[in-house]
Design brief:
The protein is an alpha/beta fold and 423 residues long. 26% of the residues lie in helices and 21% in strands. The protein has 13 helices and 19 strands.
Length: 423
Amino acid sequence: MRRGYWWLSLLLALGAGKAQAAVSAQDAADKLIVAFKPGLTDQQQRQFVEAQGLKVVDALPALRVLLVQAPAAKLGFAQFRMMSDPKVLMVGADTWRDDWLSMGESALDPLSKVQQSVKELPKFKASTVKALDGAADGEAQWGIKRVNAPAAWPSNQGAGVKVAIIDTGIDPTVPDLKGRVAGGTNAIDDKAPWVDDHFHGTHVAGIVAAELDGKGVVGVAPKATLYAVKVLTKEGSGDMFGIMRGIMWTGQNGISVANMSLGAPQEMPLIQYALQMAVGQGVSFACAAGNDGKAVNWPAAFPECIAVSASCPEGITETKLCLSTSEGIAAFSSRGSQVAFIAPGVKIPSTVPTSNDPSNVHAYSGTSMATPHVTGLAALAVAKGAKGPAAVRAALKAAAEPLPGLSSSEQGSGMINAAKLAR
């Protein structure tokens, strides 16, 4: 069975479980996603769409969703006809996108260059939580220090918290991630590995939970347990149905926190539908606000997501990244009333697959890099006792401090201080 892919921003098969083959954007153009209201059995749903002259390609039974195919000439009419039927909740195209790898900076910096360019000054007041000995060395890069993660580590490193990275996969062989990745799923092809064949997912994963071992880099929650949810190809392409499948997997597999450093400027109600189901099952979603400097992208703009904007450190003089040499919002960062928090997002060193560079550490910029800081902080909140999305959001908000000179649309409640999550 065949279907398209979908999306990525640097912003399991549930039921049917059929292996998916790689397809092109042209192949994806003739598919619709149909969501049904409660009341029809799986078989009745299939009979309904087949009566419209459509072919069932895949299914997400837990959502009452079918992926169907129609001749291109009949697609619009079929969509209109089904949308007018009272048994149908919504219908949408299985949108293909290949431009979701949208970082604020395309160049990749080695760790040494970042250390030379970033002025690292403490921003939070001295904490009553004693920082872990040795945590202030080069392993804790500037973003990790900026959210004060080392102050939390003596009592809380996120142990036992299950975190999903909904992305291009994770390379579990990277030294700083060995032992951190417990498994995952490939929502594109359930018979293919979930291992990262790009780099984005591995970079995000390192910011969340790279090991505290005195080497390379360290994540915000270095003892959290990672799960790779591969929804994007090695080109960063994918389809909406694959994203929905990945979101549903998190809800059905006991995930506490999920990172979505991907998005688009168009609203996607079907993605929100999947998010609502997973949030109801206890998953907290941290989502990248976007990198176009405009309105918050989706899915971050949905209330089910904790939307994260990106901050610049002091001392960066590159105007394409930072608006001034003072700490503030990154020039590329999207902003709006949906932003919940701001986090470090410029020149963030983290893990990359060995195939990209033997050193396994490079720096990128984007709300894709800011978001996993908040994901790691959410893992610390869960480890400290926050149960469910509402409690996680409340714990993060209580630990946040506004940055001077920024509006709420730029920073939400501000920068989260990990030391407050350890109390």
